Amino acid sequence: MEQADRLRHQQVERAQYESDLAQRRYMRVDPDNRLVADSLEADWNHTLRALAQAQEDYTRRREQDARVLTEEQRAAILALASDFPRLWRDPTTPDRERKRMIRLLMEDVTLNRDQQCAQRIARDLRRAGMRQVTTSVELIMPEEGRRTPRSLVSSVRRSMRTSVRIPL
């Protein structure tokens, strides 16, 4: 965090240097040369706006970095994480919120048909920040191959209910 703050401060210093340079150029121009003076003044104004933006960004990011969770907030987050199964099964939790929770926990789910046995499906689950988990499921695939079998859907749903665990 200290290194990021130093890099952001260097951006402000570069913007300040560019602004000072543009100001010196404008101050040295011959007043009789109005076209050049107008161009240099426009450049100076542009660098002043860039400097103000850089300073604003730097201040905003420092304030964001300074925000620290209180012990109460940290305890509330840990309690919510430990109550995940209760929250998941709560009938008042809407499906869209369950989908959001899954998106936070799972990177992706891939279903692949086994090359040797067409009725076997390999399910790869990649959890966010964790290793990949592969399981095989024995299914009877439909002939047309266009519909997802109900047994596969129910198997995935069952495994999602049982395999979603939050380690603390």
Give the terminus-to-terminus CA distance.
25 Å
The 3D shape can be described as elongated
Order of neighbouring strands in the sheet with most strands: 1-2-3
| Number of helical regions | 6
Helix content bin: 55-70%
- State the major sheet: 3 strands, antiparallel
Question: What fraction of the residues are assigned to beta strands by DSSP?
Answer: 5-15%
**Number of DSSP-assigned strands:** 3
Number of separate structural domains: 2
Explain how this protein is built.
The chain is an alpha+beta fold and 168 residues long. It folds into two domains: 65 residues; 70 residues, no CATH class. It is 61% helix and 14% strand. A three-stranded antiparallel sheet has the order 1-2-3. Strand 1 and strand 2 form a beta hairpin. The radius of gyration is 29 Å and the shape is elongated. The chain starts with a helix and ends in a 5-residue tail after the last helix.
Question: Keywords for this structure?
Answer:
alpha+beta, 2 domains, 168 residues, 3 strands, 3-stranded antiparallel beta sheet
Describe how the helices and strands are arranged:
Layout: H1 2-28, H2 34-66, H3 71-82, H4 84-89, H5 95-105, E1 106-113, E2 120-127, E3 132-138, H6 150-163
Antiparallel strand pairs: 1-2, 2-3
Helix pairs in contact: 1-2
Short characterization:
The chain folds into 2 domains: 2-66; 94-163, no CATH class.
